[in-house]
Amino acid sequence: MNGHASEGAFNTHWQPPEVSSQLETIRAALDATLNPRVTNDVRQQALQHLEQLKHQPDAPQYGFTLADDWEQNDAVRYYGLQLLEFAVRYRWLEYASAQTEQLRTWVKCLSGSLREQDALFIRNKVAQLWVEVAKRCWGGEWMDMDVSLVGLWDKPLSEKGVVNKVFVLYVLELLSEDIVNNEDAVAGLRLETLGAALNEVMIPAGLYEEHVKTRANRQEVVRMGGQQPEVARSMAICAVKAMNALRPTMSWISLKAVAEANCVDCLFLPFHTQDVALQTAATDTLYALLCRQYSTHSHEAWSNVQLQGLHPDRIAMIRQTFERTASCTGDDDAKYTLQKKLSEVLSLLADAVSQHPRLVAGDEVDVPALFDLLIYVLQSKSLVVSIPILHSWSKMMAVHDDTVIDMVLQALATLVQTCSERLLRYELLPSDSEDEVVRFLDEDFDTIPERHAFLGNYRRYCTGIIQAIARSRPMEALQHVLTQMKHLLETGPYTGGRGFKTDEYNKNSLSVLQFDAQYNVVSSALKGFSLWCADVTALPQEEPLHAKAEVDRANAEQSLQDWSYSVINLHVDDPEIAAQMLQTLVLILRTVKTPRPEFVLHIMQHLLTMRLYDNPAHTAFSEAVKVFEGLRVIELQKLALAFSNELLEVYHELEPRIGVLVQKHNDDQRLVWGYRAFLFMIVHRARAIDHDSRVARLQQMLRPVYEAWQEPGLTASVTSLSTFCDSVGLGDLGDFYKTYHFDQIQDWSAQQLDEAGQTRQQMIRDRSDSIPLRMTKSMLAATTEKLKPSSEEFDTANSLWSSIIPAILPSLLQMLRHAQAFHNLSNWSHLPDELQVVIKRTLQDRFWQSGISSESKEDFYARISGSKTSYEGFASTVRGTMRNIREQGYQVIYLMTKFDEQFYSTQNLAEPLAEAILEDAESLSANHLHPIINLATGLVSRCPPHHRERFLPPILVKLFVKLDSKISAEWATIAAAHDRSASEDDELGDEMRMESVLRQLTFSMVSFVPFVLEYDKQQQPVQNGTNGAHHAGPARPTLSDVVLSNPAVLEPMMLFCTHALGMRDTRCCTIICKVFRTIVPLFQTNDAPAPQVREFICTEVLKACITSLNEPYFADMQKDLASLIAQIVLLYCRRTSTPREIMMSLPDMSAVKVDKAFGKIMKAGSERQQRALVLDLLEGVRGVSIYEAGKIARQTPKAQGRSGVRQQYMEVEQGPAITNGDEVGLDGVAGLFGDA
Asked: Hey, is 187 helix, strand or coil?
């Protein structure tokens, strides 16, 4: 022992016990755990001895002796601190006051004995130990804790250096985090006392005295004032620590206290130095302060803080810092990090001005300098630096204050130019691009999905700003952006005469991407113009502005039409450019309120006559031409819906032209039926046609659909899986594989099919195309697109399909059943084992996974396209055939639901439908199950209330049972994969893809639960067809009634939710916790099925919560899990003893301990206290605490990756991030199901 141990920093005397023999044993055990030459058995015995030692009565003494002995190595001293920590955390309540005082004394001794040469993790552990003690007794037995801290702080630099000061600051930081910002269980139990004590030492004395007058009488903590040391170069590390200590405090401290202590002045002091680390720490603290939410009761204090930040000197200082730290990629990471953080602070100041323009009403702010700085930062080549300011500008566009408007108007030209340039799809540029923006992106983002999400948000802000500018200045904006587009058309390399070559075609070339960016600019401007037109329409006619606005609108619309005429004859050979020009012309036509009929017909003629000459020898170009042809059909259909009356007048001319196009594209059923649907829309929606003639012509158009489904051969083909496989050319698949030795070929992509094999492949495609799903989907979509309920068109459509839908459903359901059963490997058990392996491999998708696949999306598609005639291409054709049948069938069923009464009133439909779409769902891979969930969502949401109890239960029961089984099994597979180490990169990549897909599927299914339970609360009943006519008022029964009152549905849903509590996805687990917190209060009665459900919750759900609480993975979910456990205890423990019995079944859980905790939970005054009591009760079974797992959730948003981008700029709308390679451009069922 060193001499210092007998007299610590606080003149506390303690004589060490005679424990030398025990200490030798401890040292030997620690050496055994750290020595790589020791056998595993010996190591395990040593670990067991060290663990048992923690439970011995003298463990704290051994701990202090080891930790305070400088002669011991760091590992031994750290173990000593762990012994003390165990005593404080787990045995504090067992100790008498003298023993807790001794622990406190030892901790103070250790703190006062710290030296500069002590390892940082030793010093940090002592500080954490100090905080653990403080959380248990500060403000109670330990009234002078801040006196002790001041004593440490006041030690001269010559004696202790900055060790004590850094220690004190770290303690204050941890106290602020645990008491205020974190869900710390121990602090939660003494929240009122600790909160008051923290307030007292943090708030300036004068303000605290004023504050305490508003509080009831309370015991005061002994308070000492301290003087802040001057910031000097030698104290830089201490100053940074001071900033870190202030940061968590800034999120809760009184703004009056901030003002009185001149915090903003102090936080800007580092900007007078050249210390980038100190400036960065100050910027972080400024951010924590300035992002405090505005509230009316603190208006004056909040405004004062914001004005201090907006002071001209501060704005000038921020600009100088930006200019001084400007750097290129890779130059100086510290300076670049400071720029990103400073941009976020500047964004907060700009947002404050947007929300409260009165801040800049006086002379205290140099408004031109502020807005000039915002423009300067916006134009940074680093989009990560730029995006916070871009977001602020998007908010600024909506401000109506004159001062702000004047500044915005001066910046419009720069904003349009910058936003237009930044709409370029940078993610499609090559990684070796010299563009500085691309180089910064490469530096900022580790993964492709991060970059895609970020750029998607960046472009969204840009388009929003352009849209807002066009709404406020429509004439100037439209003229500017359309002139730029025309200039690109006239000068860009988009024709053969200007360098376009089909053999070198690349849809991601810079010239194409530049036009794509301009197209998005024009689209945004046209949307802004549409909003301006709506604003004009809303003006009262007596308003003086109304007449002028109407004239301006007429002039603008005339300009749009003139521009369209001027570009129609500009020749284009590039398919991408041609497609976007068609979209632009159609968008203009639909934007103009009352276009002249001749203008409509001129655009229509252009769409029909525009030609691109395909060159199949040049694959990339040929694929782009096919995409163009598909887009042409979509744009024609848009015009058919919008201008059916005008087109009906020239129908006699359109029909033969469409006939020619149908004949030309006869080999592409998608285009054939797209063109026929175009004609159908005109006849169906046009007014100038009598009812009988309309119906007769529409029936004639639909006759091929009816006849196709009535064809005897089709009916016979779906009687069994075998006959169905025969009908699509897959009847002897096993023999084909055997003949071509698929089982002997390792690399299917490298082995080409011979001519006979390719003929067989084409036969499968042809037979698949002959199935009437494509025509049915196209005609149903044409019938129901934007169809208004209860309209004449709706009644006509209902009548037309009333005889066709019953003819379709029997064969369609059988077809779907077989297309799913095809994936059930038990149906292939008759094949030899080696061919069963081939079948299994055939059914495994090739897909590109964002952020996981090692190749780019374009390279993936190129590889897929290049292997179409290989063995892998044949397998792709096989699985693609079945997938297309399933997904097109799902779409047909969903479209049928739009005839709600007719569809849902069909007798004996629910059970066969559930079987068709779900019976073999477990056999499908996870990425094929999203369409089923989407279909189920559509079936549920469109079901009329009076059909819910009859129609929905069979579907919901099977959905929950099958998806629960599938998802649970997949998570078990993932867990098993994690237990073994992947030896190959490909294997690891497959596991990552599998897990990513599974997370998306789990999220989709988990989200379905609150969708069903909250549907009627969030949305009015579906007002279509007979729903609106016969069901006024609240829909009965509600969807939640159907689920919660029917045990057959409730049981599988509850089982799925319970299993989801253990699935390793925090987002999904959080949703399910919220679901259960909604459900638990509903089952407090004694009416069936409440008692049974209550017992299930008290057993299975409670066990699942405790199990997850014990899992390190769920460390940052302890708040949600503890809240749910507390709710179960609070609401149910008076009605059943089951929660008590479950708790008592846990290790080291006595009845006294459980009863005491339950009693406190029942009396707790807040939810946080309830959570704290639960976490305290389960402290012994929690695997890893929030604190230990490093999951401290600060109130400042989390950053992502190297970029340090705030989470709000990385969020992306949830949707599958998977691209199947088997059929490029397949319409996704998810998008269709978004239609109302």
From this structure: helix
User: For position 1228, what pLDDT does the model report?
Assistant: 32
Give the DSSP H/E element, type plus range, for residue 1206. Answer: strand 1205-1206
Contact 188, 1171 (CB under 8 A): yes
Question: How many other β-carbons are positioned within 10 Å of the β-carbon of residue 766?
Answer: 12
CB 1202 within 8 A of CB 198: no
Q: What share of the chain is helix, strand, coil (3-state, %, to 5)?
A: 70, 0, 25
Question: What's the number of CA atoms in the CB half-sphere (13 Å) around residue 895?
Answer: 29
Cα–Cα distances in angstroms (integers) from residue 1146 to residues 43, 1083, 1178, in the given order = 28, 26, 9
Task: Tell me which DSSP letter residue 220 carries.
Answer: P
Neighbours of 1047 (CB within 10 A): 13
Q: Which residues lie across from 302 on neighbouring strands? A: none
| Residue 202 three-state SS | helix
Angle at 352 between CA 384 and CA 326, to 5 degrees: 30
Report the b/e string of 692-722 with b at 16+ CB within 10 A: eebbebbeebbeebbebbeeeebeebbeebe
Contact in structure between 914 and 936 (CB atoms under 8 Å): no
Give tens-digit pLDDT for 530-543: 999 999 888 888 88
667-672, long-range: CB within 8 Å, 24+ apart, which pairs?
668/626, 668/629, 669/769, 669/774, 669/775, 670/630, 670/633, 670/774, 670/778, 671/629, 671/630, 671/633
Tell me the mean pLDDT in the region 953-957: 97
**Residue holding tokens 């595993």?**
40
Quote the CA–CA distance of 777 and 809 in Å, as a whole number: 13
Around 222, how many Cα atoms within 13 Å sit in the side-chain half-sphere? 11
Reduce the DSSP state of residue 414 to 3 states and report it.
helix
Helix (H) or strand (E) holding 29: helix 20-34
- How would you classify residue 729: left for phi > 0, otherwise alpha for psi between -120 and 50, otherwise beta? left
Q: Which ranges in 592-744 belong to alpha helices (H)?
A: 597-609, 619-642, 644-648, 651-664, 669-685, 691-710, 712-717, 721-727, 733-739
Contacts of 839 (CB under 8 A, 6+ apart): 733, 734, 737, 825, 828, 831
3-state SS string for 726-772: HHCCCCCHHHHHHHCCHHHCCCHHHCECCHHHHHHHHHHHHHHHHCC
Instruction: Over range 576-593, report the average pLDDT.
Output: 95
If DSSP codes are grouped into helix, strand and coil, which group holds residue 114? coil
pLDDT tens sequence across 229-262: 443 444 677 888 888 888 888 888 888 888 877 8
Q: Which token pair is 911? A: 């059970």
CB 764 within 8 A of CB 729: yes
Residue of 537, 515, 594 lying closest to 560 (CA atoms): 594
Cβ neighbors of 137 (< 8 A, separation 6 or more) are 100, 104
Q: Residue 321 and residue 309: Cα distance in Å, rounded?
A: 15
Structure-token pair, residue 292: 């405090």
Residue type, 576: E
| CB environment 790-826: b (16+ within 10 A), e (fewer) | eeebbebbbebbeebbebbbebbbbbbbbbbbbbbee
Instruction: Return the DSSP state at 13.
Output: B
Separation in Å, CA 870 to CA 551, 863, 877, 1178, 1225: 63, 11, 11, 59, 21
pLDDT of residue 192: 83
- Rounded to whole angstroms, the Cα distance separating 145 from 134 reads 8
**Cα distance between residue 580 and residue 568, in whole Å:** 12
pTM, rounded to two decimals: 0.82
Contact present, 1049 and 956 (Cβ < 8 Å): yes
The answer to whether residue 828 scores a pLDDT higher than 70 is: yes
- pLDDT of 857 > 70? The answer is no
Q: What angle do CA 929, 935, 938 make, to 5 degrees?
A: 145
pLDDT value at 2 more than 50: no
Cα 878 → chain centroid: 34
